[in-house]
Automatic annotation (TrEMBL), chain A:
PANTHER family in the cross-refs: INTERMEMBRANE PHOSPHOLIPID TRANSPORT SYSTEM BINDING PROTEIN MLAC (PTHR36573:SF1)
Gene3D superfamilies noted in UniProt: Tgt2/MlaC
Signal peptide bounds: 1-24
Repeat in keyword set: no
Protein's name in the database: ABC transporter substrate-binding protein
Keywords, comma-separated and alphabetical: Signal
Automatic annotation (TrEMBL), chain B:
A biological-process GO annotation: intermembrane phospholipid transfer
Family annotation (InterPro entries): MlaA
Signal peptide bounds: 1-24
Sequence segments annotated as region (Disordered): 247-273
Protein name: VacJ family lipoprotein
Keywords attached to this entry: Lipoprotein, Signal
Similarity comment: Belongs to the MlaA family.
Any one GO cellular component localisation term in the record: membrane
Amino acid sequence: MTERRPLLAAGAALLLARARPAAAQPVDTARAASFIQATGRELVAAINGGGGVTQRRDQVAAILRRAVDVEGVGRFILGRYWRVATPEEQAQYMRLFEETLIRNLSARFGEYQGVRFSLGRSQQRTEDDALVNTIVERPNLAPFSLDWRVGEVGGQPRVVDVIAEGTSLRLTTRSEYSAVISRNGGRVAALLDAMRNQVAQLAAREGR
Amino acid sequence: MRHAPLRRLLPAALALGLAGGLLAGCATLPPPDDKDALEEFRANNDPAEPFNRAMYDVHQAIDTAVLRPVAVAYRAVVPPPVRTGVSNVLSNLRSPVILMNDALQGETERFGITLGRFMINSTLGVGGIFDVASRFGLVPHTEDFGQTFAVAGVEEGPYLFIPILGPSNPRDLVGFAAGIAADPFNWLTFGNRDLLDALSYARAGVTVVSTRESLLDTLDDVQRTSLDPYATLRSAYRQQRAREIANTGSGAVPAAPQGLGTGLGNTTEGGQP
């Protein structure tokens, strides 16, 4: 029982080492970490800055649009249904996905007033991404761990996943979207309708 | 009044889960020529999905009518330091079971941490009300029999959703039962069985309320933002369990400090002293 984990780890390391040469664009861990640190600093400044809720949220949204590989994340999440979708559906999906993602994330981060943010202890690299661990602290609440998966897109480091306390945003969302599609007879259009609805609801609640 | 309430509930839940899974029929397997669909079916690990979704609806009904309103009231009425104290006492009561599982997994360092935490918090922390040990650098973690089974190589089995308990699977459900059976606070009677029963009921009730309160924001968020909360919870639970089993948590906060199988990290309220 005790030997199982090191063995598994060794096996995984071996597999990774073998896969390494095939990886297209490896990301430098230090570069990824400094990118996350810079983005985090911008986000914290926007969140804790003056101005109203709406203004803060817009600033956060602008930073996220720059930092996140929205297209890559969107395609990953739609997964196998990307190929099934018509070009028109793909375009609509991308528009709705960006809207949903940015609205959800900026609404979330917008609530984190008084937030502090620091690089965590473990920075590791995977096959073709770097995983940057950060600790988010808010007043009167327990700190929590937020991992940022950073990939290289067009020569620039970009966020490709956010992992809150071990739950990956893109994996969870992929499961959610694919459930909506498969429960509606495999129709991508059903997902688009649901997303349109949700965007309308989010907009109504945020009053913009 | 011979057994602790949860111990009595469990066999029933287990039987319900297994029988239901068989009776309600399984999700239809995708056609064998659709490789992607088959792959997804396997990845979801939810052959009893129709049954599980029905159980999820039952849970949501109970949650909307009882659990959530009670948790909201608890948050509104009880001030934060008291709630933290309650949560700390419950965590401390779970220490012996965590300790057993640290030992079974051969995690000597974590065993030492759990033992140290239990001794310090039970004494200096006044019966576990204050998490003094965290100030000494002894960071809490969770461990349960489901995780120990996993480390020993037991497969999780098909995904299950159990009302009130939340996301689970046969391995974790048996582990949950084992945790209750092995918990010394459930069988040390001190010669007074009625008192033990009363205390066990109280502890089970407080655990449910405290856990639900700690998950208020997270679950509200899931309900608000997810297009399919059932699928979101399923995915989150399996990711969280994988992380807990691998013990790769950041150490910032324990992944599920309250110990119920919700699979969602408690990012709202922590076990701070």
